[in-house]
TrEMBL record:
Pfam families: Acetyltransf_1. It comes from Enterococcus silesiacus. It comes from the Bacteria. Gene3D superfamilies: 3.40.630.30. This is Ribosomal-protein-alanine acetyltransferase. Transmembrane segments: none annotated. Residues 33-180 form the N-acetyltransferase domain.
Amino acid sequence: MLKKFNLFHSILGLFFKNRPYDEQTVMLAGQEYFVRAIKLDDIKDLLSIEREVYAGELPWTKTAFLVELQSAEPHLYLLIQKDGQTIGFIGCRIFGQDAHITNVAVLTKYQGKGLGSFLIREVQRFAKLNQCEMISLEVRISNKNAQRVYRQLGFVSNTIKPDYYTENKEDALEMILYLKEE
């Protein structure tokens, strides 16, 4: 019976890999937000969020976003809006059994309201639909607040990647969330 279920689950996984994200309105911390897949026209907003969150730095360029959004590989890129303004986003791509979070950012004014956690849970849902065994990400070794949030979501520390961030040679901490079968 388990083999039949796994086969059925595998066939469904093929369907879900390229399934578009269903936009939705969500309530978080008593506020209403709108979530949808990122479009090419949104890149300017994403770059603006990066500048604010990363103190003027642009971890991802316009070209990097363009390449990722147009990739044929399974991926999920979502943004979250409040009153029509893009205030955060997340990106994820599938590598075998790993759903790798490529970037996540929420404007400082909206941090601490559960938006980043919600976006990560959406990636988790996507990862499970794509039969991933884990979700991975890198975080600056100095970003203790982000590490705390990731740990609260079930991520564990894996390895330190020396000089990962090229602009200042800062190390990254790789963190992993192991997905359990339910």
